[in-house]
Task: inverse folding
């Protein structure tokens, strides 16, 4: 039985997901895994439109944004050359920096979350993460990191919004607790401590999958 995993890293903006995704990829490669590290929004055709919306270069209704994220995710999964379904079938452990829980949290802040979940059901049916890792950081700390590291902020990067997004993540985890494997990690720690927690979690999950 294959023991390659599909892992989604989740968290509010400034939670350190991208750093942790890279550290996890390196760690897994060192232990012999074939790793494919990826992210949403993607660099694909819809992903580049989304980046422009996030930067404020294009205006769009929140419902349009939510459905563009869905289209981007479908291409992320099904693209003939680089789609995640293909990568998983080739034996890669896939780490994605954001997946559908980001949609539930970010768009659930602006519209009915159940609608967002229903729209994304096909993605869950195509590829459900073995592990959703939520890096839980206080929104105040995230905003400090964003302001310290960047000249400008993106669409959703305000303290009030990040507080709402964090609350929506919690709501989504409660709603989908039976169908999804979600683990929350304390993201207010040092980078190395967070990386160690994630690494321990993933090796436990790998052993469990091997036993199946
Ligand atoms: P990033 O900062 O992790 O690159 O993500 C870019 C932004 O995209 C971030 O503010 C969260 C947002 N986003 C959504 O609003 N919906 C989604 O489905 C995803 C994947 C990201």
Result:
């Amino acid at each position: 039985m294959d023991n390659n995993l599909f892992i989604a890293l989740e968290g509010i903006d400034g939670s350190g997901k991208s750093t942790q995704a890279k550290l996890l990829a390196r760690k897994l490669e060192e232990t012999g895994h074939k790793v494919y590290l990826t992210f949403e929004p993607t660099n694909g055709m819809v992903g580049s439109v989304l980046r422009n919306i996030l930067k404020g270069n294009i205006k769009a209704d929140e419902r349009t944004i939510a459905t563009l994220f869905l289209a981007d995710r479908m291409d992320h999964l099904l693209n003939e050359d680089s789609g995640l379904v293909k990568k998983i079938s080739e034996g890669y452990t896939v780490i994605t920096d954001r997946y559908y829980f980001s949609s539930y949290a970010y768009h659930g802040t602006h519209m009915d979350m159940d609608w967002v979940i229903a729209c994304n059901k096909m993605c869950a049916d195509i590829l459900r993460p073995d592990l959703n890792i939520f890096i839980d950081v206080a929104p105040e700390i995230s905003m400090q990191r964003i302001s310290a590291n960047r000249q400008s902020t993106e669409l959703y990067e305000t303290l009030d919004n990040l507080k709402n997004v964090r609350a929506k993540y919690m709501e989504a985890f409660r709603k989908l607790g039976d169908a999804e494997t979600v683990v929350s990690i304390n993201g207010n720690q040092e980078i190395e401590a967070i990386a160690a927690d994630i690494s321990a979690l993933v090796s436990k999950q790998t052993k469990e999958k091997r036993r199946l």
Q: What stands out?
A: The chain has one domain: 6-211.
